[in-house]
Design brief:
Layout (H helix, E strand, L loop, with lengths): L8 H14 L45 E2 L2 E2 L44 E6 L3 E3 L4 E5 L10 E5 L1 E3 L3 E11 L3 E3 L5 E3 L3 E7 L13 E5 L3 E4 L2 E4 L9 E7 L9 E6 L2 E2 L4 E2 L10 E7 L1 E6 L13 E2 L8 E3 L10 E7 L6 H11 L3 E4 L1 H10 L24 H4 L2 H9 L6 E4 L8 H10 L5 E7 L6 H76 L5 H39 L15 H4 L13 H7 L14 E4 L4 H18 L9 H95 L1 H53 L40 H24 L12 H9 L13 H6 L5 E3 L6 E3 L9 H19 L31 E2 L27 E2 L46 E6 L7 E5 L11 H4 L7 E7 L3 E5 L1
Parallel strand pairs: 8-21, 23-25, 23-26, 24-25, 26-27
Antiparallel strand pairs: 1-2, 3-6, 4-5, 5-20, 6-19, 7-22, 8-15, 8-20, 9-10, 11-12, 11-19, 12-13, 13-14, 15-16, 16-17, 16-18, 28-29, 30-31, 32-33, 32-35, 34-35
Helix pairs in contact: 7-8, 12-13, 14-17
Length: 1124
Amino acid sequence: SRLLLVPHARFICLLAMAEVEATTPAAAAPAMEEPTAPEAAVAAPAPPPPPQADAAATAGGEEENMAVDSEGVGEAEAPSAEAAPAAPEPPKAPEPPKELEEDAPTAKGKKIGEVVSFLASDTTLNVLPSVHGNVLMALSDGGLQHFLAGARGNVGVKSGRYMFEVKILEILNPSQTTRDGQSGRTRPVLKVGLATQGSCLFLGDTEDSVCFDSDGQYTSAKSSAMAVPRFAREQVYSVVVNLDDGSPNAHTISLFRDGVRMCQPQKLPEALKGKPLFPAVTYRNLTVQVNFGAESMTKLPFSCRMIQDASVADAKVLAAPKPKDGKYEVVFPCFLPDEGTFDWLDMWLEKNPDYTELSERMILSWAQKSGLFRQKGYDWKSSNDKPGMQFGVQALDDLTVCEILKTVAPVLERNLIVMEVKANLIKDDREALAKRFALDHCKKVAMVVMGEPDAAFKTKTHELLLKEKQEKADQEFKIHQLEEAQKRQLEKRKREIEKEHKKAERAVKRAKKAQDDEAKKAAEAAAAAVAAAAAAAEEKKEGEEAKEEEKKDEEKKPEEDKEEEEEEEKEDEEMKEPEEKEPPKVSLTDEEKKVLFRKQIVTDLSAWELSTCFTNFSIPAKEEGFEEIRYEWSKKTKCAEYIKDWLLNKKLTTRIEDLKTSDGFQQQYGQFQAQVNRWRAKQNEWKETVRMRAVAKERKAAAEVAAKAFKEAQLARVAAEKKAKQEAKEAAEKLAKEAKEEAERKAKEEAEKKEAEGGEEKKEKEEGAAGEKADEPMEKKEEVAASEPEKKEEEKKEEDEEEPAKEEEEAKAPEEDDTPIDLDGDDDFDVFGVENIMDIGKGQPLFANFSFEDWALMGLRYEFHKLAHAFRQDVADPERLGIHVDHLIFYYNKYFRKSLIQKHYGVETFEELVGLVSDSARINPANKVLESHLSDELDSFDLFVKLTEECRRERSLKADFGDEAAQLKFAQALMAPASSSGYSGGAKGSYGRDYQRSPRTTGPYAPAPGPQAPLPQQSQKGYSNYSSSKGQPKGGATVPAPYPSHHSGGGYQGGKSAPVGGSSFGGGKSGGYQGSKGGQQKGSSYSAPLPPPAGQPQSTYGKGRPSYGSSYGSSGGKGGSYGK
């Protein structure tokens, strides 16, 4: 109310001053004061004559050669007391040109009867005209002090010579507050000139106006140059426009200050010739008086008619539009976002120039024309409806200026169009806007612009599309031309370099040839000098021939050079720049002609605004405070159907930025993750069980092999001993037989000898025979006693031979089958018939063969299934059918708090990603919405395991048949790390427990009497050293002398398979098995036998009975060691 109180005390004082000054001669007045030092000074030295002026004119009055200080137009500075010595008197300046303008002839014909003034539609919203006279002020609160104000008169000049006057009554110094709290001021501005009807209200902004400004510049066709001194306060500036074709200054504009010419007449641009020119002013932070009246405030060197005194034939008068029913319309367009909103607005304003746009877009454009600096530039916008200010000025950035204009606009009697895309579509916001214009002179009209556009709008849209396409083609053409020019320049430069090289080579060749010729001439001269005088004539002849040859060579050189130069010229002609071509003309394709609404880079509403408010969009009704509702493109019923279909489509394709997930969802998802962890632990346990079974089988097989080898060695030993005894027996029997035969022969010979000797000998013989008979029973007894140990030994051997047979029969006894179930090879196995997925038999889980890819796909099955159901529950809107595929990644991140990157799963689109788990979810091809095949009420999570196992079996079968598409290519390294499915290598193995027989004290294996070297303690333990992550070798302990070759073996342990050595003494064999993740590996070590005890042969001592030692320790995956 304070701003709109007109007239008030200050205005009455200014008006009184203006009336007094109009009747008194003008005196020297101060110039426009500048608010602060950082701003440029308002007053400045007079500039040189502009180039538009006549060449003979060097000055337009003494004012142009004066210095103007910050207080006003002052006189030339007086020389100081300490001035330098007087310089020579300069040449006398030429006299100023003669004034060519003559007194105006007496007016003939009818004069205009309308009062020249400013129509409301031809002024900006911040202009406040006075009731008495044309005194203009401007709003200066809420950031409006930064904006220019513009006003254009309602009478335009078509011919003749006329003038109007402008005077600065007041210079305002409003302060401003920036975002950082600093204060500053805005520089005052004044522009006076001429403009065409309907042109921009800011002079100099377009080619439809010319003006002089307070900085001393003359602007024509958007080009500025210094022309006059800077403006000052309390001085009258007269603008004279000469459109008289018979005048020497025809089609010119001149500026006078207090009746004195400030510059030579300035030519009007060709674009303004033949058009009515209306007086106009543009100002900021000033109070300006504009005089159109019949009498002027100052006297010019010639008489000139005022615009108010114009003849009807020389002027065009614009009448103020009379509103229908005595009310001015306030139009509220209702557009759906991005459906031609602002394109239609521009078209509508062209057809209805008496309407003024009221929107943030208009304010931003106004600020740009006012020269305000914007931090991000004027091309950046957050949206078309709410572009954002970003000026660094508090009153502008917090939209205080918008509220001021919305408060002032209803008071002004003018037609308005309020363009608020979001507010005009929401009922509550529409009602609030309508209440602002609840005045008697305002008629509120809601205009619904929805549906298929009319033909005029389609034509305009196609014209804009074609213009954009042509501009893009022109830009591409220019870029192509620049690239071609650069290539030609490079090629030209390359050829120039080659030409220089060739030229240098020719110069070198010529120089070399010249040297050769000189050497030849020297040789010839020497030969000629030796010749006698008799050859003088002949020498003379040879000299002439040599000159002729030299002349021929010199003639030949230019010819060769000329040929090379001609070739180079031909190449240069080929490299000449082609003629400039015009950019290709483009046209719209059939598809582009079907486009109804032009797609712009910046949308009408930001994504956040649209997603949070579009569900409240509706068509206006009269109950909201509107006197009239108009439907531009379609009727009411069709508009209602159109907006309903649009809302349904938006609910499918627009994401909900402020959606909140339920607590129950997070709880259920946590339960699923816990169950997955239990499943993976079970899989690891089963794999370890299978591994241990395999280890046990390998150990058993190794034991069987060792037992079989031992049995074969025993059998071979028994057979060898039996054979040796049989051979010894046969040899003994043979020796006995030979001895007996020899004894019988000798007895026979002795008998015959005794028979020859007589009866005495016969008697002795009979006595000897009787003694032998008595000794036979004793020999038989001795033979029986000797054969008894042999029989016992044979019986024992037979028992030893029978023991391996019994062990073999025991080994052949049937064992329990612990082979895992082959899920891939059994075609009859029913996955969905499994009751307990944790044990399908023998402790094997259904997911025993799951790999990383299977676990990942099972997680996707549950996540997509749960996401589809949870979204519909959280939005609680039956019209929202689900998540659109374009927003799948957004909602996936919101619900599961992790990113979803389809390329990590080896696919390019989200449709392909959902296709990997098509048994549980899908993308509906009709509306592109995520849907779940499963019910939301599942008793357990087992179904996801069964679906994954069935899919794995099918994929394995396809891979067996050579289908490469069945192979999954997941980026495991880039995806979230999964829990490990195996045990790591062991940390520290246990010490083995050696079984050692106590030393014998009796028998053949007892040591000899005397001191014996003690066995070292290191040999009594089987070491298993600490493991290494990289499987580093670990050495064993070496037994010192006197057993140099005895050692306890070392080995690798940890990570994968690792042999662990044992120790051996006395020629025994030591080996070990170490169970670990990668399998088993046998290690062994051999050593030389210990020295035998005293008195015992070496072969006997080395046959000690084997002893068995065992050690079982937990190392990594429950590995143990077994040693023999």
